[in-house]
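Table S2 (continued). Query chain:
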Amino acid sequence: MIVENRFGKGELYTIDEVYNEVGITGLVKVYCESTACMSVTSDMMSWVSSGEHRSKIAFVDMNKPGYNNVIIVLGCQVTDLAILNDINKARALHEENPEAKVFMGGCLAYRFDIPLPGFISRLGAVRTEYQEITPDGKRAVHWAKPFWVDSNKFDSENGDELGEGHIFRDMYPLKIGAGCHGRCRYCTIRDTRGNSYETDAYLQVKEFIGHDDVVLISDSPTPKQIKDWCQLAIRYNKPISIRNVEPSVVCQTFSELIDLAQYGLLHILHCPIQFPNVEVLRAMNRSTLDTVEFIGISRRLRSNGVLIATNVIIDYTVPNTDGSVRTFPPLDTLWMHENFDYWSWNPYFDGHYDEQRAIERWNKYLPNKI
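Corresponding output:
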């Protein structure tokens, strides 16, 4: 299918087109690895869980010649370091199994302005809405370690829930939506996640009560969703965690979140503040008032046993009218450790990908990280 967005126009395969092209000679065997976020990763898990593929596509546990004929990498484009990592992952898998057809999925597939090596085709978003994720669905996607984490410090099977790069990985991902309609100056999600949607909490009660350690997954949960899920968690006396709730939404649902915390039913709340500095937030076109208010709310939530997580963008820059570049104060890591139970960072990416520059920035920010 042909898709057009602010990054240009390009061809994206659908999962049916993958089968139609590769499956001419028989069953399509897919090795799928995700270097992307939990939202993208659980999209594919939901589709596999639906069982729509069983008669024609099998997901396998290794990539090797003669074993699988398709490789899917679910990629991220939040920073050029992630893009470099995605492409290198696809290259490595291609070298292991050069006969398999390689597809890049996830957000990177929608970045038509970023050229991919000739052996990689682009795969559009693959998901099934309102789909309970099964053990087979989870096993189908091999979730790579985050690119910023040392290999010898990451245990994908037995990690601490607040260990670097491990947050939410061991929980049940209950998908409540995808996409975002925000207008943050640096963000691309509204163009790279396929069609946006949000679910009705009351249509997912059976899925919710059927699983432990539930984390609600969306790119940007709405105030109504947060309020509904707080009510359901209290009604069924089941703890939940919530990912990627914007500060403005936390402020609008403050009462419900505090009630949930006081019942002891809000485990982890992840809210991306992006940077703890008013001047930087203004440059990002983000609400300074909401972020400051969120910090106060988060302290109240922590006093009630809630774990607070966030992510930030470091080294944010904006061009001046004279052609120079304006930089901002460095991140106060001590303040971050004092105010958050878990936080991660990405260096600012201006959206223009250049592989040589990405390598140079990798060596600057992630020396010896492989």
